[in-house]
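Protein 1 of 2
SEQ + STRUCT:
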Amino acid sequence: MDEETGNSSYLIDLPNGGKSFVIGNLLMHGPNAENRKLISYGAEGLANPDNELYVVNNTMVSKRSAGATFVGIQSGTTVAKIINNLMTGQGIMFTGTADTTSNLLLSDVSQAKFLDEPDYDYHLTSSSPGINQGTNPDSVPGFNLVPKFEYIHPLSYSSRTDNGIDIGAYQWNTTGVEDNSYLSSFLVYPNPVSSTAEISFMNYAPGFISLKMFDMLGREVMTIYEGYFKIGESKFQLNTSQLPRGVYELLLQSNGKAETAKLVVW
C-alpha cells in the first residue's frame, strides 16, 4: 500500500519464478510509484522448478499517470493463471502469456464503486461491477485457490464470507449495509508491550462484543472484555505484566464478524 506518498517499485517480486500463489491481496501503487509493474514474476530468470503462477481474487489499484502493468510474466513460464482480479488505473493487465478468467480492468478507480477509496477502503458497494461476476477458481494439486481472508488496512484481516464469488479481494456485504460497521482499525499500542497496552477502535458498530487473548498454541489466556460496546467507547486497557514473554493473538468478535491482531509481550 503506497497510499498517496509512497514510491514503491514492484509490490510483489518473484524474481526467479517457482510455484507461486498470490491470492486475496490488496495491492496499491501510488502516483509516485517508481515501477510500472505491480506483480513481477521471473524477471531475473526462471531458476526454480515448477514455474507456475496463480493470481486469484486480488484488488489492484494503480494511481500512476504513466500507466501500469498489473502482472509481468517472464517468457517460458509453464503455467500462469489470472482469475477474478479487480484492477483499476491506466495500464495493461499483463505481459507475457497467461490464461485469464473473470477479471475486470477499469481505467479509472471511480468505476469500481469502492466503499471509501480516498481513505483506502476498497470494500465493494452494491453498485460495484464485480459483484457475483467471479468464477470458482477451484484448486491445484495440494492447494485450494479460493480466498479465505480479507485484508483490513492498515494492519489486520478478517475472514471472507462464503456467499458466492465476487471479483477482487473483497466479498460484498450481502446484508446491504454499506457503512463502517465492520471492525476496522482495531489497533494495539504499544506493541511490543511490557506492562500496559491500549486497544483502540476507530471504526466500529455498537453491540455485543467479545475480546479474548490466545497463545500461539490456540489456548485461551484471558477474556479481556465481553459485553455491550456503546457508542462513545473506543478504548480498552490491557495489563500484560503477569503474562509470560511471547507472541499472543487477540480475537475480537462482533455483529457476526471477527478480527485478529498479534501482540508481543516482552
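Protein 2 of 2
SEQ + STRUCT:
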Amino acid sequence: MSILFKNVKELVLEVDEFLSTVEQGVLIFKKGVYNYLDKQEEAFFDNIKNIERLEAVADKLQRKIDRELYLHSILPQHASDIEEMIDKVDEIIDAAKESLYEFDVEIPYIPDELINDYKRLVDASVDAASAVFPAVTTFFREPVKVKGMLTKVYFYEKESDKLSRNIKRRLFHEMDDLKLSQKIHLRYFALHIETISDKAELLADYLSINALKFNL
C-alpha cells in the first residue's frame, strides 16, 4: 500500500466490502434479466429479492464509509472526492435494482427473435461495470495504475451502445408485426439495460481524473 494510504487500511477494507456487494448486485441483475428472458419466473423473483438485499447492504456500507471519512478525518483533503466516487459506485447497483423492478412491473413482451440481442446487451453492460470495480480497488492502493485499467470499461460501454442501437434498428426497421407502442416499450428496456454501462463509464471518467489528483 502506498505511503499516502498506509494509515487507512480499515477504510480500504470497508470500500472493498462495499465494492464486492455492488458487484454481486450487478451479477444478480444479469441473472435476473436472463431469468426474465428465459421465462424462469421463480428464479427471476428470487433475484429481485437478492438485489434488494444487496442494495440495502451497500447503502449501509456507504453510510459507514462516509462516517469514517469525516468522523476520523481520514484523508480530509480527498474526503469529498472519495465520497462522490462511492456515490457513483452506488448508482450502479441502484440502476440495476430499478431495471429489474421495471421488468417486474411492466412485464415487457420480448419476441423470441430479440431474446439473444437482449442477452448480448446485458452481457456487455454488466461487463463494463465488472471492469470498473478492480480500478476502484486499485485507486486506493496504486492510483498511478488506474487509468490503464479503464480500457475495458470504455470498450464494453461502446459495445453496449452498439448492441442497443442494433436492437432499436431491428425494432423500427425490420419488425413490422409489432405495434409502435410495443417498439417504444422494447426500446425503453434496451435503454434500461444500457444504463448500467453508462454508469460504469461515468465512474471510469471520475476515477481517471481523480487518480491524477491523488498522485500529485
